[in-house]
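Ligand-bound model needed. NDP.
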Amino acid sequence: MAEYSAARSVLVTGGNRGIGLAIARAFAEQGDKVAVTYRSGEPPAVPVKGEGSFLAVRCDITVPEDVERAFQEVAQAHGPVEVLVANAGITRDTLVLRMSDEDFDAVVDTNLKGSFRVARLAAKGMLRMRRGRIIFISSVVGLSGSAGQVNYAASKAGLVGMARSLARELGSRSITANVVAPGFVDTEMTAVLTEERRAQIVSQVPLGRYASVDEVAGVVKFLASPDAAYINGAVIPVDGGLGMGH
Ligand code: NDP
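Prediction:
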């Protein structure tokens, strides 16, 4: 059975807003030492109660030097990352014939390669500690596909192969790698959808609504908890039933 320190060093990429911020808050509230990356704007403020602490590091996950520096800053402040949540992601939706190489590359470089960059550095420290949790935020569309999202769905499907390879490669050191696949969540990413599209999506979700950011955060927190020590290489849907069967 893996052992856990009381307050773990947790890193959440894209933790300045949306799902990432909710995940950061969930860990901070239970007393972990939480770091988030932010790329633009002001560093987010997360009130921390009890033993935990919070750090915001500026980092664009498409820039390798940024990622290196962020990991150094986190290690100095909180110790090596024990829980990595690779959450940062973007969309550049358009139909395939209109999708440029640039649209494709930007999404894959952020969602897939950016996650690889942070997972590789996290794995380095975790291998030394002989423990760790890596959690990738994918999407229901990575498995079901989505018209207008060839780039995004490909990047999110890639995370499944990445997590399962890491699960096989790192499992003997008590490091798990899992994927959370949310459906539609109320954030700035989905705020751009038209009312018509929103109604269409909701009509296909058995629960008949979007998820809240906290409903995703709770599952991520569980995957990093001692209760999830034997869950490895799994894809956990948090989609209200939208993707059932995939
Ligand atoms: P938001 O658009 O609200 O936030 C995206 C976050 O990612 C921001 O913090 C943003 O930082 C960060 N980010 C984007 N690009 C980079 C980069 N190059 N380097 C560092 N950070 C970056 O998205 P959500 O909170 O909705 O989504 C979070 C994750 O969940 C994403 O991976 C998304 O694909 C996934 N997801 C979302 C769903 C939804 O319905 N909302 C459904 C399924 C999956 P900045 O503020 O600087 O731009």
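The two ends are 31 Å apart (CA to CA).
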